[in-house]
Design brief:
By secondary structure, this protein is of the alpha/beta class. The chain is built from four helices and eight strands; from the N terminus they run αββββαβαβββα. It starts with a helix and ends in an 11-residue tail after the last helix. Mean pLDDT is 82; it is low at 6-30 and 178-187.
């Protein structure tokens, strides 16, 4: 097969992006998530899950919401989902909802990935890619939204959501809307 220089550049670019996103932020540098300016309102969404049930961000008002954007074409996104599920189980709090939003059509094999990883938090589908205004530079990108609907933090790239350091960071947010000073520094 004859590969053009442009095709090779695209392959190399894809590999570099995958390498960048496969390296999670760790406790070593204290940069778990990027802090957002105060009172930055999250954009509402109205999306369906696999069963066709509609979900809106507004439905979760009064709770913290971890919104995770991912895609089937992103292998690190699929691996990150297992750590999100584990964090969901470890935190097990009424005041926290984890919602994943798949960018694209659910017919791309999403259901098998969810079953394989025993995902039991809501997974929604942005088929028309209408949520681009959330500020998603790469997949995965995640946000923590406050009970009042404001974006508190953003994580660009993969994270190990079930690591002790990330669980401590999340507990700090859930307990006070402000992370413990020893847990994280804004990027």
């Amino acid at each position: 097969m004859n590969k053009t220089p442009n095709h090779l550049l695209m392959v190399i670019f894809g590999l570099v992006i995958n390498l960048i996103t496969i390296i999670p932020a760790t406790a070593d540098d204290g940069q778990l998530m990027e802090a957002y300016p105060p009172n930055y309102e999250a954009k509402n969404f109205k999306l369906s899950d696999l069963a066709g049930e509609m979900h809106e961000l507004e439905d979760y008002r009064g709770k913290h919401v971890l919104v995770n954007f991912w895609s089937m074409s992103c292998n690190v996104c699929k691996s990150e989902m297992t750590t999100l599920q584990s964090a969901h189980e470890l935190l097990d709090r009424e005041d926290l909802v984890i919602v994943s939003i798949h960018a694209g059509d659910p017919s791309e094999g999403v259901e098998s990935v969810l079953k394989l990883n025993n995902i039991n938090y809501p997974v929604l589908f942005d088929i028309d890619l209408q949520l681009g205004d959330w500020g998603i530079p790469i997949m995965p990108t995640s946000f923590i939204v406050s009970p009042k609907g404001n974006v508190l933090y953003r994580a660009v790239g993969t994270r190990v959501w079930n690591s002790p350091f990330m669980i401590d960071f999340m507990q700090g947010i859930l307990d006070s809307d402000t992370p413990k000073p020893s847990s994280a520094k804004p990027l």
